[in-house]
Amino acid sequence: MRIAIDAMGGDLAPREPVKGAVQVSRENPELELILVGDRDQVQAALAETGGSDNQIRVEHAGEVVRADENPLQVLRRKGNTSIGRVAELMKSGEAEAFVSAGNTGATVAAAVLSLRLLEGVRRAGIAAFIPTAHGRATVIDVGANLRCQPEQLFQYGLMASVYTRVILDKPNPSIGLLNIGQEDAKGNDLVKETHCLFNGADINYVGNLEGQDVFMGAADVVVCEGFVGNVLLKVSEGLAETIMILLGKTYGREASLSPEEQKTIKKSLQWLHTRTDYREYGGAPLLGVNGACIIGHGRSDARAVSNAVRTAAKFAGLHVNQHMIEEMHRVTSARC
Amino acid sequence: MRIAIDAMGGDLAPREPVKGAVQVSRENPELELILVGDRDQVQAALAETGGSDNQIRVEHAGEVVRADENPLQVLRRKGNTSIGRVAELMKSGEAEAFVSAGNTGATVAAAVLSLRLLEGVRRAGIAAFIPTAHGRATVIDVGANLRCQPEQLFQYGLMASVYTRVILDKPNPSIGLLNIGQEDAKGNDLVKETHCLFNGADINYVGNLEGQDVFMGAADVVVCEGFVGNVLLKVSEGLAETIMILLGKTYGREASLSPEEQKTIKKSLQWLHTRTDYREYGGAPLLGVNGACIIGHGRSDARAVSNAVRTAAKFAGLHVNQHMIEEMHRVTSARC
Fold first, then answer.
1. Four-residue CA torsion sign, B255, B259, B261, B263
2. Which of A98, B76, B119, B174 sits a CA distance of 20 to 30 A from A330?
3. The pLDDT of residue B51
4. Nearest to A118 by CA among A327, A332, A335
């Protein structure tokens, strides 16, 4: 399995993507990795991790899309960006999947421009795992498509349920629609119409969900517009951190804990941290493009990158796209 | 101070609103409360709490707007709903503030229809407190206005900063705009234009916030569309509960805690529960209407209702609306 990695993507690039590539290649001898980015910088980072590796090759791309740049403008203007190049490697068949923790908008734009959408798909959406009281749920979309149409949200639900079934090995995942109330009449026009589309289809739809239901694990797949999903995902990170600060510092001070009590609290918070750590979740696939594209968190470190590479390999190896195409043929939406 | 309470509003009505009214009136002899709802049911609930009280009178309203009904249609069709009646009591001057934990859409509609908006205000918005690592933040809007215009979000920021300053006694509160990235170019058209309006005004604007920043306390006021704010608020409740389940059950089982360790974890979770409990936050005001209207959580119990009544008294007593009108005159928005 050959996987291309945007070595310049993310706040900690190129060091951490390169380190992550080295780690994951050592543990997975079947992987061949292509690190794409500024050759000198990538080689230097490789040397830092203990030298090169015959599973890894470096492909030069001299330009980078920064976080504050407009993705489409930049991709058109700059000739050889690392993110444009990884998408091209996938298109030409030199890579079977790619991973980037760079500018999300640029990654989505490069993937859609190079790979195009799967037949019948209207928009690509990013599916991310979040922790719940019962394990994890898949949220789609977390930032590819900020303002959606009902039919797009409907397709997101189908694609993410297939992804969840195949990748988490969960039979017949339930689908819920994020709304501001559970009743049919609740919400804006977008969610009301989407609710109607889901209700009329032969799928495991459990209806409208409210914010508090999401983390209680009320559905395996949570569907929402990209703006809302992005807030949801990031809030979940922030709140977990906040709770750790509150319990670790404020409570510790207020309750005058004994050394033993402090130790107990600390151990439980470490456990919670692991349980809710985005680095463990292996990146988020861009569903709907004709290829395997895994988007990493902007703060990705080596562990996050290596987990994202594992997800990419699994996504391509288990033929998720083929299963999604079959599901989209099987399910027809109602008229609303 | 006379305050009208929708005794039929919320999942636990009329028992809990009535119980809350009795509690708060005993502790605050200066309050006169009007319980509005089905006379027989309200009298029965009053009898249950230990009889009537000369600070409390009952006003009959025979109809209720249920959670699954369309607010505007119902208010037009039903003649004497409890929510319509409390708003009318405020309009006529018989009450100086009102509290309802019923159908939020109906409360907003009744308030706006009866009381009208403050001069110059385009839309009313609900402002709710959420816990942060540094205390609390005010989120506006959490569900009155699901799809907003930039000028509406701009006014929300001004109104909520005044509310936060007066009610939390916090000088010059900072205002942040909820977005999917911190850079100027991030977000949909709505947030980009709102960001420009805030940037051009003489206010304490700290820029775009991402989801994780909100609970870290990056701004005192967080501005967003009602759909997003509603999800944010409810997610914060759900995630806090989820974390308590995870730490209390899953971690307890996995870590085979000793009785002492279990006790420590339990105590810390109880503390966290108090710290993040919406019942402590005293309801959420509908800012922008010409009156004092406090909206309670649908699950409000007696404590939540009594705290909401306290907020209503404070809102009216501190003349929050007058301060908001002055701020809106002081601040002019840029052209974007």
1. positive
2. A98
3. 63
4. A327
Cβ-in-10-Å burial (0-12, 13-18, 19+) of A249 comes to exposed
Give the ipTM: 0.91
Q: With CB atoms and an 8 Å threshold, state whether B255 touches A268.
A: yes
| Opening angle at CA A123, ends A138 and B142, nearest 5 | 60
User: Could you give the CA distance from residue B169 to residue B64 in angstroms, rounded to a whole number?
Assistant: 36
Nearest Cα to B289, choosing from B105, B49, B124, B51?
A: B124
The CA distance from A171 to A154, in Å, is: 19
Chain B environment of A73 (Cβ under 8 Å) = none
Q: Is B213 in Cβ contact with A238 (below 8 Å)? A: yes
User: Which residues in chain A are contacts of B242 at CB distance < 8 A?
Assistant: 131-133, 215-216
Do A331 and A201 touch, CB atoms closer than 8 A? yes
Residues 6+ apart with CB under 8 A from A220: A137, A138, A161, A164, A170, A173, A174, A175
| Nearest C-alpha in B relative to A186 | B68
Could you read off the pLDDT of B99-142 as tens digits, one per residue?
999 999 999 999 999 999 999 999 999 999 998 888 899 999 99
Of B70, B245, B265, the CB nearest to A268: B265
| A184 CB within 8 Å of a chain B CB | yes
- Residues contacting B155, CB < 8 A, separation 6+: B121, B122, B123, B288, B328
Instruction: Look at the block and give the residue holding tokens 């395996």.
Output: A220
A127 Cβ partners below 8 Å, 6+ apart?
A: A138, A139, A140, A141, A142, A156, A159, A160, A163, A284, A285, A287
Query: Three-class SS of residue A49?
Result: coil
Residues 6+ apart with CB under 8 A from B57: B32, B33, B34, B35
Q: Is the pTM of this model over 0.90?
A: yes
B240 touches chain A (CB under 8 A): yes
DSSP string, A123-151: --EEEEEEEETTEEEEEE-SSS-SS--HH
Is residue B193 less than 8 Å (CB to CB) from chain A?
no
